């Protein structure tokens, strides 16, 4: 499992680095985020949820049936959209609302 950081979308806020429980994300000299040991990423997705610009994608590997799919997050207030992009298919979107996520 690992992530991909889009350097064009990264604004260098450092939130992903602060939240990564494995301390795997560092800041490059140009202030952009970089993952230094991608193979050590265990896929907690904390950085995806924290990134304000949706710059981080998460590979869904063959080991979990991802077949080359990639997931990223788009947030709008309380709404979080988990978007899974599959090769040669329409994206799948799962929407959650933080106001009701812990309702049960
Ligand atoms: Fe860049 Fe997103 Fe990390 Fe902020 S949280 S440093 S925008 S990748």
Task: Give an overview of the whole structure.
The chain is mostly beta strands and 104 residues long. It has a single domain, classed as Alpha-Beta Plaits (2-Layer Sandwich), CATH 3.30.70. The chain is 10% helix and 34% strand. It has 2 helices and 7 strands. It has helices at residues 15-19, 46-50, and strands at residues 3-5, 25-27, 33-35, 56-60, 69-76, 79-85, 92-97. It has a 5-stranded antiparallel β-sheet. Strands 2-3 form a two-stranded antiparallel ribbon. Strand 4 and strand 5 form a beta hairpin. The longest helix is centred in the N-terminal third of the chain and has 5 residues, at 15-19. It is globular and about 40 Å long. The mean pLDDT is 90. Residues 5, 10-16, 33, 50-53, 55-56 line the site of iron/sulfur cluster.
What binds here, in terms of ligands, is:
iron/sulfur cluster
Helix content: under 10%
Largest sheet: 5 strands, antiparallel
- Low confidence ranges: none
Give the class-level CATH name: Alpha Beta
Topology pattern, helix = H, strand = E: EHEEHEEEE
Q: What general outline do the C-alpha atoms trace?
A: globular
Query: What is the number of independent domains?
Result: 1
């Amino acid at each position: 499992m690992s992530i991909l950081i889009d350097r064009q979308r990264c604004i260098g806020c450092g939130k992903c680095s602060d939240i990564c429980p494995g301390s795997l994300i560092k800041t490059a000299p140009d202030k952009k985020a970089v993952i230094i040991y991608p193979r050590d990423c265990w896929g907690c997705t904390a950085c995806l949820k924290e990134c304000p610009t949706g710059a981080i994608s998460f590979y869904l590997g063959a080991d979990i049936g991802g077949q080359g799919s990639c997931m990223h997050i788009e947030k709008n207030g309380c709404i979080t959209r988990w978007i899974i992009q599959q090769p040669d298919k329409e994206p799948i979107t799962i929407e959650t609302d933080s106001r009701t996520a812990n309702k049960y």
